[in-house]
Structure formats: C-alpha cells, structure tokens
Specification:
Number of helices of chain A: 9
Oligomer: heterodimer
Structural class of chain B: mainly alpha
Radius of gyration of chain A: 19 Å
Radius of gyration of chain B: 27 Å
Number of helices of chain B: 10
Shape of chain A: globular
Number of strands of chain B: 0
Chain lengths: 214, 247
C-alpha cells in the first residue's frame, strides 16, 4: 500500500474528472468566469482556493462535533472569511498589482459555493485527514478548469501566455500574424468565458456519455 | 438624475450576471422553472436592498481609513478595511437569518414557497459582491447605496427570469446530447451576455466608451516606424561611407 489507500486516492481523483466541481456539480462558477482573461490571474485564484479549501476543510472537520447545527452556516462563513483575509493580505503584500486585477473576486472566495458545499457535504461528517484530501481534490478539479479556460482566453485573446508573446509580434507581423491571424479581442470579454466553459462541458460529456443529462 | 443613472446602470450595463458573473451558481441551479426563479429573484432583490445600505454605513463609519473619527480625534489613523469581508458577511448572514424568522412569523405561505432559497442567499455571491462593489466603487451616499442595491437586485432578477423562460422552452428543441442541460445553459447565457453588452453605450451615447488601448498600439506602431527609419538612414550612411572607403 502506498501513501494513500484506494478510497483516499479516490477523494482526489474523482473531483478531477467525473465529479468536477465546475462542470458537473455546478459550483463556484462566478470566479471561474470572471478572472480567467489572464492565465496568471487564473493560477493565483486556483492556488488561493486550494489554500482556503484545504485548510478550511481541516478546521471545520476538527470542529465538527462542537458546532451546533443551527448556527453552522455562520461558523463556516467566519472560518472561510478568516482564511480569505489571510490570502488577501498576503497578495496585497507580495503581489499588489495582481491583487488589484483580482479586485473584489478574492473576497468572493468566501461565497464560492464549492467551499461551502464541501464543508456541508464532507467536512461535517469526516475526519480531518480525509477532509483535507477532499478539499485538495476539489480545489484541484476547480483549478484545472480555471487554468484551461485562462489558457485559451489569453492565448486567443491577446496572443500571450503569462504576458509573454507566443504567437509572434502583432505589430511587425511575425509568427502566426504573418499568415494573417488577428487577436480575437472578443475572447477577453465576459461572454466568451461562458461559451468556453460550455464547450468544455460539451467535450467532457461527449467523452463520457454517462454524464449526459436528459 | 444621479439615482436614475445608477439605477439603470446597475440593471443593464453592470448586470450582476452578465457583466460580472455574480451569483452564477444559484442562477444555473435554480433556473429550471420560472416560478422558482421568480421566488429566488425576489428574495435576492430584497436582501440586496437591505444589506448594501447597511454595509455602506458599516464601511463609512467603521471600516474606512479614518472612519473612526467620530469616536474622537485619536482614532483618526485607524484603517480597519481588512475586516470588511468578515463584517460584510456577518451582516448578510444575520439579515438572511432575520428575514427568515420574520417571513416565517408573518407569512407562512411565502415562507414555504421561499423556504429553501433563503439559506441559499447567504452564499449567493451576488449579495456579497454587491457590498464589495459598493465599497470598491466608492458610492458616495446612503441613498445611492440603496439605489445600487435595488438596481443590481432587479438586474439579477431579470437575468434569472429570462434564462428560466428560455430553459422551459429549450426542453423541446433538439440539442446535441452532450450539450443538454448545463452545456447549453452556459452557451445561451454567453449569448445573452453578448446581447447585454449592447447596453454599454446606453447612458453615454457610446461616446466615452471608446477603447483606450487603440492609441497605445498606434503609438507603439509609430515609434517602431521611427526607429525603422532611423536604422535605414544609419544603414545608408554606413553604405555611403563604405563606398567612400572603397573609392
């Protein structure tokens, strides 16, 4: 047996594909769409959620026997809000420009329903180690979609990745631009994020017909 | 006038769903039927209308840099804005809880129809987003904060009503199987968002909505042209010198 038992490993691999939080559970869509015009912002967002979810799940799981069920929502919100404040302050201190572009959306991690959903569905009923794995798994599943969407939107929208030109120089017409390619600025606007996610869902479900809704 | 402008702006131009993607989760999850969509939409309008002005007061008199001056001059340097997330979410959770108790007491039938949606609202990012945007856009007065809250609520209501109506009809159309359900909802929302973008110039007549990036690109093109010409001239000079040397 390796580090993880088979059941534990499933906690990480399931949300990655067949039970992906964004494309199957329909949770945490807002941030997935709003900040994916740049790959860098997507990655920072994914890492922030990874941190908040991993830790939050452990904290809630440790407290699960002493939280009265009537006020559990407020307790959960306070735990998430505290973790998010930490993320926000760290970003402001070390990556001020990035925290400006992310703006209010770091704060909106608090109401990211993936986090509340996992607290409710998993951490309140399971031990800390398994909750930690579950949190990490779901955050990774979320992050992957974010990174894929961010990759395509930045590449097709501004011809760059992480801010570096990859499709050639649009002004001197080198690389792809020499063949008449133009940046599709529309990719950077809000509606295309929705359509890109729609296409990802389409591809995923045609690969795995078990997921098709009726 | 100011109120009217902000009102329409928050409904159409800065629509919560189509421009900033707030409250998408419940927007996608609760939009299968028009009736339930109306219930949730109404609850969102109400909660936004209450929490945005309340959080505005909190922001003005407790959180902002120097907001504590009313306690005495020695508090003028305090900046508690890092606490805003936790205070805002506490206000929202409390208000949702209060609304639930009040509605249950006075109108059990409304409570039964809203029932499950009320707790959902506490984690609807449109609500927290309303307060956070109110803070970051520095809305100047309590009245305007109320207008902003109501306006964004109505915008959200319109969006969920529209998508619910479309989804009720779309059930009868033939859509590729893997796109059915969630996939097509995303794509339709994208198309609706394109439609809502056309409201962008509504208040300005499209005049100050001109793109700012264009001049920057034009400038870089011009500077590149200049450097190219300089290099050409230099090359000519070098050639001329070479010719002289050869002679």
């Amino acid at each position: 047996m390796g580090l993880l038992s088979k059941k534990d490993a499933q906690l990480i691999t399931d949300p990655f594909a067949d039970n992906n939080p964004i494309t199957i559970q329909v949770l945490g869509i807002c941030s997935a769409l709003a900040i994916t015009a740049e790959l860098k912002a997507s990655i920072v967002m994914a890492v922030s959620v990874l941190f908040v979810m991993g830790l939050g799940n452990v904290v809630i799981s440790l407290m699960r026997n002493i939280i009265p069920s009537k006020i559990r929502i407020i307790v959960q919100l306070v735990v998430v809000a505290t973790l998010v404040i930490i993320v926000d302050q760290v970003l402001k201190a070390f990556a001020y420009d990035l925290s400006k572009t992310l703006g209010a959306f770091i704060g909106l991690i608090i109401t990211n329903c993936i986090i509340m959903g996992r607290f409710e569905a998993f951490a309140l009923a399971n031990g800390p180690w398994r909750s930690f794995l579950d949190g990490i798994g779901n955050a990774v599943g979320y992050g992957v979609i974010l990174i894929v969407v961010g990759f395509f939107r930045e590449l097709l929208g501004s011809g760059t990745l992480f801010g570096f030109k990859v499709l050639g120089d649009p002004i001197e017409k080198t690389g792809l631009y020499a063949f008449g390619y133009e940046n599709n600025g529309f990719m950077l606007l809000a509606p295309m994020a929705l359509i890109v996610v729609g296409i990802i869902i389409w591809i995923q479900r045609s690969k795995n017909p078990a997921l098709i809704e009726d | 006038m100011e109120h009217l402008e902000l009102f329409f702006k928050s409904i159409f131009i800065d629509n919560m769903v189509f421009a900033t993607f707030l409250g998408m989760c419940s927007y996608l999850a609760v939009s299968k039927k028009v009736a339930t969509a109306v219930g949730l939409g109404a609850a969102v309008i109400f909660v936004l209308a209450v929490t945005v002005p309340l959080n505005w007061l909190l922001d003005q008199y407790i959180l902002k840099e120097g907001a504590l001056v009313w306690l005495g001059p020695e508090y003028a340097e305090y900046d508690l804005s890092f606490l805003s997330f936790i205070l805002f979410i506490a206000t929202i959770a409390t208000m949702v809880q209060l609304v639930e108790i009040i509605v249950e007491k006075f109108s059990p039938s409304l409570y039964n129809s809203l029932g499950i949606f009320l707790p959902l609202i506490a984690v609807n990012c449109a609500i927290l987003g309303g307060s956070l945007f109110m803070q970051s856009r520095e809305i100047p007065s309590l009245g305007l904060a109320l207008t902003y809250g109501v306006g964004s609520g109505i915008g959200w209501f319109l969006a969920i009503l529209a998508i619910a109506a479309i989804r009720e009809k779309i059930r009868y159309s033939s859509i590729p199987a893997p796109l059915r359900g969630l996939g097509i909802t995303f794509i339709v929302t994208g198309l609706m968002a394109i439609g809502f973008m056309s409201f962008g110039g509504m208040l300005t007549g499209g005049e100050d909505a001109e793109q700012e990036e264009v001049p920057a690109i034009v400038q870089t093109v011009e500077t590149k042209k200049e450097t190219l010409e300089k290099e050409k001239e230099e090359a000519k000079e070098i050639v001329a010198e070479n010719i002289k040397v050869n002679e």
